[in-house]
Amino acid sequence: NPQMIPEKNLIDWVSNKDGSYTKCHFWSNFEIVDLSFYRSPQYQAYFDHLDKAGGFFYERWGDAPIHSLAVAMFLKKSEVHYFDDVGYYHPAMSHCPKGSKESGKCVCDPQEGWSNDFGCAKRWRSIS
Questions:
Q1: Sequential DSSP letters for 63-128
Q2: Burial call 90-111: b when 16+ CB within 10 Å, e when fewer
Q3: CA atoms 110, 115, 118, 122: torsion sign
Q4: 79 catalytic, yes or no?
Q5: Alpha-carbon torsion 22, 109, 83, 115, what sign?
């Protein structure tokens, strides 16, 4: 349903030039969502398509990429707030807010993880 996808969305964050998935998604599991987004016809059609494909059950598709892909397709960057001041750690990914080590709020190193050199962070920042 291409008519459901707005022109100025975030698809470049999750899609390579050849159309393949970059595997970029929000890792933190910290989401504040207006439920009207999940109830929208666009999201419902997207979710129904994925559900019928069987990937939730057979492939264990997770909520983070599913939500992130929906956000990338259906929202503009101005409609998304990335909480850059909230730290997160997962063995495969981390985000340490700038200045947090000095303030004693985190034990992480701001030079490591998502916020410093990770390709998805660069892609996110490059989208206007």
A1: HHHHHHHHHHHH--GGG----TTS-EEETTEEE--TTHHHHTS-SS-TTSSHHHH-HHHHHHHH--
A2: eeeebbbbeebbeeeebebebe
A3: negative
A4: no
A5: negative
pTM: 0.81
70 HSE (CA, 13 A, CB side) = 21
Return the residue matching tokens 């999750």: 14
Catalytic residue among 31, 59, 79, 102: 31
pLDDT tens readout for residues 2-36: 888 888 899 999 999 999 999 888 877 788 999 99
Place of tokens 């700038």: 98
Would you say how long the chain is, in residues? 128
DSSP class of 20: -
